[in-house]
Design a protein that fits this description.
The complex is a heterodimer of chains A (about 280) and B (about 150).
Chain A lengths: L6 H21 L4 H11 L4 H25 L5 H21 L5 H21 L13 H6 L3 E5 L4 E5 L4 H18 L4 H11 L4 H25 L5 H24 L2 H23 L5
Antiparallel strand pairs in A: 1-2
Chain B lengths: L1 H9 L8 H6 L7 H34 L19 H9 L3 H29 L3 H23 L1
The chains are: A mainly alpha (about 280), B mainly alpha (about 150).
């Protein structure tokens, strides 16, 4: 495989990663959705290198943005760590199942599920903060409720957490999907926290951001050992995504939850379509 | 636990302060849970920033070293790079650019894992046994998946 390396190529990859990182930091996903097509279609990188590189992008998005979000108390660390138990167990079981199941039909199934999940979000488009949410028993016992400083609203917003068991199940499914299909699970994590557990959207995306890095780290070691992370591509990607995550995380603080939802919804739809297409054999 | 519950409900009445000001002037009334939560967040925030900055600097250093290697950029193959810890170490001794980049990337991969370990420590300082157990459980699952991946 002779790919010509030049300073221009490295700068192009850096710029694409910058965009992927800033969007990923906003909506709580790794940059994989944008990055994999960019690397395979535009730069002609073999798919296994593109996936290995996108794992690096997920960790860079996560750590780069969480560095700001955790410090500014946007992230709910307790919710994130607690749910991460289900996600990591899901990821391990998904990796096991990968040997038994044919994943192509699963891409279609999960793609359709994701597409259906956009419907409740459409009804929530005008919602700034979830109202009338009461802690469930789990949230009370584990002190999951919290508060975050909202710069857009100019006040400290406190929130409660509901339907924790259902959220936990969704997180397990998110983990299975990422282990099974090798795609990021960020979007399912955001849905679990936003739609099911009724956390404010900013808290959902920033907590998802914190979590996706931990989930990705579990498989990154495997990709590294397989030699699927080419340093000359991964280096500009990592640096670009980190810079992008820095920009995105500063943008999020100033956005309203409503505006954030308007960014999240089309990206989620795009991801769903991408998954269905991959299921019928079209990889983009 | 009861005390923590009480202090948490106090949060609802607290007013907003920009984060930068918040750090310089701590709230006058000590609020047990929110303060310890802040300390945990601060600790984890530092680990994340430290990991990100160190790995970015090393990765960048590797890129900067590229033109100085014999042969320059032109004849670099995509498929030849170290992908075992031993090979990275050998490459580092020779200050090989790809090995330096891989070291940066490995540190980036390690950052979330160290973050989880740090949160276990932070919760231990808070004496929140339940969350120490949760963080350690996540860490154990992570390490298990590393080992499974090596064997599989």
């Amino acid at each position: 495989m002779a790919m010509h390396f030049s300073v221009e190529l490295l700068l192009f990859i850096f710029a694409g990663s910058l965009l992927a990182g800033s969007i990923g930091a906003l909506v709580g996903l790794g940059g994989g959705i944008l990055l994999v097509p960019l690397l395979t279609l535009v730069f002609g990188l073999p798919i296994h290198y593109a996936i290995g590189t996108s794992i690096i992008a997920v960790i860079a998005t996560s750590s780069g943005s969480a560095a700001a979000y955790v410090r500014d108390r946007m992230t709910n660390l307790r919710v994130g760590l607690f749910l991460e138990v289900a996600t990591t167990i899901g990821a391990v079981s998904g990796a096991f199942l990968a040997g038994l199941l044919v994943p192509t039909s699963l891409f279609v199934i999960f793609g359709v599920i994701l597409l259906i999940s956009t419907v409740p979000l459409l009804f929530k488009l005008g919602e700034e903060l979830p109202a009338h949410v009461q802690n469930d028993r789990w949230a009370d016992r584990l002190h999951l409720s919290g508060s975050y400083p909202d710069r857009y609203l100019g006040k400290e917003v406190s929130y409660q957490v509901t339907r924790t068991p259902q959220g936990l199940i969704m997180m397990y499914v998110a983990g299975v999907i990422s282990g099974l299909l090798g795609i990021g699970s960020g979007v399912f994590k955001v849905i679990a926290m936003d739609t099911i557990m009724r956390l404010p959207l900013k808290v959902s995306t920033t907590t998802s951001n914190f979590m996706i890095g931990v989930t990705a780290a579990a498989s990154a070691g495997i990709y590294f050992a397989r030699g699927a992370i080419p340093p000359l591509i991964a280096a500009p990607v990592a640096l670009g995504v980190l810079a992008g995550a820095f920009i995105g995380s500063h943008l999020l603080m100033r956005l309203s939850n409503r505006a954030l939802r308007l960014i999240f919804l089309p990206i989620m739809t795009l991801l769903a379509i991408q998954m269905v297409l991959r299921g019928v054999g079209i990889t983009i | 636990m009861m005390e923590q519950h009480h202090s948490q409900s106090l949060l609802k009445t607290s007013t907003f302060q920009p984060a930068s000001r918040y750090r310089k002037t701590p709230p006058e009334k000590p609020r047990k849970l929110s303060q310890s939560k802040d300390r945990t967040a601060l600790m984890i925030g530092w680990i994340l920033r430290g990991g990100v900055i160190v790995s970015a600097v090393i990765t960048l250093l590797g890129l900067v070293l590229l033109p100085f290697r014999s042969g320059g950029l032109a004849d670099l193959g995509l498929d030849t790079f170290p992908h075992t810890l031993g090979a990275v170490w050998v490459g580092l001794l020779g200050l090989h650019p790809t090995a330096v980049i891989e070291l940066g990337l490995l540190l980036l991969i390690a950052t979330p894992v160290v973050t989880v370990a740090t949160s276990a420590l932070a919760f231990a300082i808070e004496r929140d046994r339940r969350f120490v157990a949760i963080a350690l459980l996540v860490l154990a699952i992570l390490l298990t998946s590393f080992l499974l991946g090596k064997n599989g």
